[in-house]
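User: Some background: our group keeps a shared notebook of sequences we're curious about, and every so often someone picks one and asks for a predicted structure to add to the entry. Today it's my turn. The entry only has the sequence so far, pasted here. Could you supply the structure so I can complete it?
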Amino acid sequence: MLSAISAPSPARFPYAAMAVLATIAFTAITTELLPSGLLPQISTGLNVSEPVAGYLAAAYAAVIVVTVVPVARLLARIPRHALLVGLVLTFAASNAWVGLAPDFTTAMIARMVGGLAHGLLWTTMAPFVTRVVPADKVGKALAIVFSGNSLGLAIGAPVGTALGGFLGWRAAFLVLAGFGLVLAVLAFFLLPRVRRISDAARPSIRRAIAEPGVKAVATAWPLLVLAHFALFTYIAPFIREAALPDYATSLSLTILGASGLLGIWVAGLTVDSRPRRSLILTTTAVAASMVLLPLAVGNLVLAMVLMTVWGAGLGAIGIYNQAAILRAGGEYSEAANGLTVLTIQLGITVGALYGSGALVAGGPLLVPVAAAVPVVAALVITLAGKRHAYPPGPREQVWLEPRPVKERSEPAVEERA
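Assistant: Of course. Here's the predicted structure to add to the notebook entry:
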């Protein structure tokens, strides 16, 4: 599957490199979410309304959807080490540009540059991981790298927002830009270099889709993301309607981020050995937690327990599906991974709209139940994808498949007779 890249099998697990990649993921997520927490200050600073300032976040996601596939193909021949360092520098430049922007148009262009880098980063990073760690340690490596996502949600965005409150929104972006410059230096020295062989397959979305299992993973994973954002986007109205304390909103965001780290850790222990069983159980738990959330009216403890299950499940599901798409994509794993980046961004966008529809149609307490519907759909796809999309791992064949019945030996019976 990964024969297109030649890299020596490291004698020791490259913890330093994985930590750098996790920090890059942290920076990307913090960059994506930072405008949301500083919207009032940005609105005032750039002399636009808050809804208009919100376009800085919307444009970021839109650029990812539009550019991720063609740009990934265009830059396919650039060495992955150089590309990753260049992407970190692009994040730094984008954030500095926003921090120094004299007007809204300049800030919008800067954010679009960051969105381009964001989409390309996620098409590059996971396949890069598979090339620098042994095959039986890929799940562990992905768990370390993707912990940066949860840390960006749980720590990066809140700290950036607080920094913007103390020093101003421009300072928050400039500090993040400086952090990116330091990170680029670390990436240059600590990330291993891999050599691309001349006959490596060019990224092709068409050929990736033709690989068995890719369509299933590229559908099921975004459905789970859609469900998450349908509920996550409207968690504040739900908490208010559920008669929970005002502080429960910020508490729930912290719990979702922290429990996501727990889920990633658990997934790192199981993704290489029991990926199918673990994904089925985790997806079922997420669906159950969402369905039961409306029962937590006036019960803060129950609500937080269910949100812990939801957050941990979503953290783990990302690792299981990331490993699944790399496996299903075969020699076109980079293109397959790029396809999921695109469909996941669509899932985020549609999820917010879907949650809005549920909110209007049935009220805040219906939103969690509505969010559970695409989770169940993803579970059905997972159950059906046993052969190519979500095959059993090496330590779950016995659990998932009946033991062969040993035939009796007729000659032995004749001897006893």
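Suggested note for the entry: The longest helix spans residues 138-167. Residues 201-395 form a domain with the Growth Hormone; Chain: A; fold (CATH 1.20.1250.20).
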